[in-house]
UniProtKB/TrEMBL annotation:
Any one GO BP annotation for this protein: tricarboxylic acid cycle
PANTHER family, alphabetized: CITRATE SYNTHASE
Active site (UniProt): 306, 363
Bilayer-spanning residue ranges: 364-387
Keywords for this protein: Membrane, Transferase, Transmembrane, Transmembrane helix, Tricarboxylic acid cycle
Protein name: Citrate synthase
InterPro entries, sorted: Citrate_synth-like_lrg_a-sub (IPR016142), Citrate_synth-like_sm_a-sub (IPR016143), Citrate_synthase (IPR002020), Citrate_synthase_AS (IPR019810), Citrate_synthase_bac-typ (IPR024176), Citrate_synthase_sf (IPR036969), Citrate_synthase_typ-I (IPR010953)
A GO cellular component annotation in the UniProt record: cytoplasm
Annotated SUPFAM superfamilies: Citrate synthase
Amino acid sequence: MADKKAQLIIEGAAPVELPILSGTAGPDVIDVRALTNQGVFTYDPGFMSTAACESKITFIDGDKGILMHRGYPIEQLAEKSDYLETCYALLYGELPTAEQKAEFTGLVKNHTMVHEQMKSFLNGFRRDAHPMAVMCGMVGALSAFYHDSLDNNNPQHREISAIRLIAKMPTMAAMCYKYSAGQPIMYPRNDLSYAENFLHMMFNTPCEEKKINPILAKAMDRIFILHADHEQNASTSTVRLTGSTGANPFACIAAGIAALWGPAHGGANEAVLTMLDEIGDVSNIEKFIAKAKDKNDPFKLMGFGHRVYKNFDPRAKVMKQTCDEVLSELGINDPKLELAMKLEEIARNDPYFKERNLYPNVDFYSGIILKAIGIPTSMFTVIFALARTAGWIAQWKEMYAEGYKIGRPRQIYTGYTQRDYLPLDQRK
Ligand code: SDX
């Protein structure tokens, strides 16, 4: 991969040659590992210009608005694939044959239940606890039930942990919701598809098991696909960094859930609905656009902007199409959609947003669909975490398969140079 070189000239020192590595797509990288021997570090807060790893799973071109999983464009996966098939591709590199798909689906179905004692964790939380707090706790606690398969260096243990996590996330997510609603927990059913099963566990009760609306199940499955993986974002980088210490996969995914919770990241989908509620009416849009542009105001237009996409987030486009489909097929006329579309139109024509290439991201429209499906706002980021588990665990598995070192960034130190201890009676 290294056929080009960069030369670093440091005053007073001999030039340093650094290999330039090329991937199969995207920018080249300058391999700076040799710099430690030169007594200097690179400095890149927020990792704006840093490739932290090599990966074959997901590729993003932020300028062209391209997102591919194992080379398959997200638009094609969203239209033609389903979530479990996408999980298979993320985990194993190829779309499954019919036989492989049936086997994988069967394997996931046989692991959807959680240990009955997992219910006890719920009782430790207030009913009004944020479901992301509960998910952090429950997913981390899963490792307590699988002492027989936590050897990360054993490929079979890595495999069964990946299956268990993908299979059990919908069950735990639904448990969180039912607990908050004071309703009995619904067990998974093996006769339902992945998305149908989730909606069954969320909205059915022991008193009545309604047939799951296929339109809603398809929309749910597509939302899972759109959130499945996204290169080295903050939560995926958290999973990799946690994994590099040898922590068990359940702890790594719990760390990813915690990182995703932030409103600048996965928490944005919940924040978009809260923002639309706050704006309330088209007549208030200009006021909130002004707030978003005001450097002295911490308010940001939630669901807008992205570290990588400086063009449309391709997921936002598919999400918007799905939004239109679901609302029209359900005959829902949600004023929030009108408000969101007007907000997008005004923002996209405002110089501040245009100059900074701020476009709607995956979170801008997702909440409106989730609301139409009946998912409460507080569960939006849980849905994101549920879907992203496939990407997190695929990246975690790749890290182990490709070899890794413990992640340990350095710093530029700007604190006090050495000074002597000051006895208490001499301090002013
Ligand atoms: C996700 O990384 C991923 O892949 C994440 C994700 C995934 O799938 O994993 O795609 C999921 O997290 C999507 C992003 C969801 N977050 C939001 O919608 C929250 C609102 N967006 C912003 O917080 C922001 O856009 C970020 C955090 C998403 C990106 O921040 P960056 O890359 O650090 O960009 P920045 O803050 O440096 O912004 C550049 C400029 C700044 O202004 P100036 O200093 O140039 O004057 O744009 C401004 C910012 O103030 N800006 C915004 C804005 N986003 C950026 N101004 C108003 N509203 C916004 N939403």
